[in-house]
Amino acid sequence: VNIRDFSTDKHKKVDDYPYGGGAGMLMQPQPIYDAYKSVADTIPAENKTRVVYVTPQGYTFNQRMAENFAKSDDIIFLCGHYEGIDERVLEEIVTDYVSIGDYVLTGGELAAMVMIDSISRLVPGVLHNEISAETELFHGYLLEYPQYTRPEEWHEKLVPEVLMNGNQKKINDWRLAEAKKRTMERRPDLFDQYFALNECKEKLMQNKMIHIDMIEMINRGRAVLVAKDGNDMLLLDKETGYYHHAGDNKEFFMTLPREVRLDIKKIILHQEEMLKPVQQLFNLQNTLVCYQAVYTKRERLPISGLYRGDGKPTEDGLTIRLLTMEYADIIQNEYNNAEYQKVKEKDYIEDRIKKHRMYGAFIGEELAGFIGIHNDDSIGMLRVFEQYRGRKVGKALQTFMINKKLEMGWIPYGQFLIGDESSERIQKSLGMYMSKTPVIWVD
After folding, report:
1. SS3 letters for the chain?
2. For the ranges 16-20, 164-168, 213-217, the one whose mean pLDDT is highest
């Protein structure tokens, strides 16, 4: 949108001299506001909209910011020119001040294009590959490892032999070692964060079953280390906004910076004795108590008698496939009819469908049940409609999702509410191990 189109000046002038003197010209507030309104008035009121002012004075753009912006419904970019923009219109319309680096451009358009490219590729469907955006540069604070393609020899330089032998474990080990080496050399600041998180991971691995959600958060590059003191640690999940705590020091939270304490509105605790201190300190009363179930093996589960790997129907006519938005209301109604519900918000269900994280079991063309991957990467939302129970539909869905997560290189794990005997029974039958103590969601 061309701001000049909204100038009332016959020469389409949109700038003027600054009050108080000084070099250069400032953009006037009214043309900018009118240009903004021409866009904002076309956006539904319920949409989550951000207005980003592209300016050297803003926060430096990074991957975490891109992930955050990608959750918005609409983003309006305001590109600065000249010496800047009248402060009054910025105060009225801008939600975010962002810079792409400590250097000066003639205008904000190129910076906006950089951000648009980075953000849009995180929107489901843009890359046509559900995991490529999650497994590359900056994932887990490591730069990407070196990549090679044909020919095997070029300018007397050979592709590393380890990449040619087909041993995926050795390939993964080599890639990790190279990523560490490259990050240490080029971005020691990132490597420091990687190293600190992996120290946390080593401690968490001492009781893997109860801490699997935190371990996978680190593995998946979603974790931010907020604080650590002895055996106590506080991580923030960048995707869900939930804090995760491990440890048993009841004074730990009092040592946190004030801004962190004010920000804690939802937290997952891994030691029961921390519940009362947290509730009292942060005035959080809603709780959900779950056990963790973990599939610790690396080999895929057998699918015979459950579903077919080629997507064709079984003898009973069962197929498992991605769910589309037309099934959002059906899933929502099933949760509303359940005795308990971990997820009930329709926008959450729609988000899971958009991100290719919901799968349905069909008998013919009839939906018999569904399962999904939560936004914390855990398996969940398993439901089988009453008329299809007793036909191994739930076991087929759970098996499918465990195998799906193994294909993606993730550790399959999920959580089930205390008292949910059917979920516990299915997970144990598939060889999943249960945590001996629960995790507690508090908000």
Report:
1. CCHHHHCCCCCCCCEECCCCCCCCCEECHHHHHHHHHHHHCCCCCCCCEEEEEEEEEEEECCHHHHHHHCCCCEEEEEECECCCECHHHHHHHCCEEEECCCCCCCECHHHHHHHHHHHHCCCCCCCCCCCHHHCCCCHHHCCCCCCCCCCCEECCEECCHHHHCCCHHHHHHHHHHHHHHHHHHHCHHHHHHHHHHHHHHHHHHHHHHHHHHHHHHHHCCCEEEEEEECCEEEEEECCCCCEEEECCCCCHHHHCCHHHHHHCCCEEECCHHHHHHHHHHHCCCCEEEEEEEECCCCCCCCCCCCCCCCCCCCCCCEEEEECCHHHHHHHHHHHHHCCCCCCCCHHHHHHHHHCCCEEEEEECCEEEEEEEECCCCCEEEEEECHHHCCCCHHHHHHHHHHHHHHHCCCCCEEEEECCCHHHHHHHHHCCCEECCCCEEEEC
2. 213-217
